[in-house]
């Protein structure tokens, strides 16, 4: 598997090749090397007082949680925190939508990981009508300025979208439904969201175009094959951290 920094700069979901895959033996070999390198680079970011922020977005059942677990497996647990983002609580709803994310931004030398993020403003809030058109359209500039401030502080920002097709999502939903240990992950909302696939796809593509930036780039990951997706994500992390920490 070759470096994916160039191919991952695709910023439209229809341009991704979702047939890409990786054999299990190649996956295991690559992951061992990549995890070790990420451990070294996160110690270097700590030594240089550089915060790191990872943003994970994508379809339901696309593999965000599994990718995050592999990313963090060899990182010192004192250095990172994973934030699983859901609907704002009663206190958070009284503030600007970015308020709760400012409170979770990593300090110098530490790593913050958002499993879903402030991009919900231009995704679920847009599609489901939780934000008005003027609110979600204004959010593109608000989010870009938010990330510019993080970058100016020295934060390394890396954003991923995990992309699967509708058939693969259906297969994974059915697998979860039939597995007592995974059934809890599946909700009625997940099924309903499938009916709005084209609306979410339109919102995602517009989000990439409006919020991609040289220092806060989007990396679109073909994720029908979990081995390929996880390896691509870790390779991208290694390349971005090496670039930022040299």
Automatic annotation (TrEMBL):
It holds the Pfam family PPK2. GO terms for molecular function: transferase activity. Residues 25-244 form the Polyphosphate kinase-2-related domain. It comes from the Bacteria. The keyword Transferase applies. Keywords: Kinase, Transferase. Gene3D superfamilies: P-loop containing nucleotide triphosphate hydrolases. InterPro entries: P-loop_NTPase, Polyphosphate_phosphotransfera, PPK2-related. SUPFAM superfamilies: P-loop containing nucleoside triphosphate hydrolases. Belongs to the polyphosphate kinase 2 (PPK2) family. Class I subfamily. This is UDP-galactose-lipid carrier transferase.
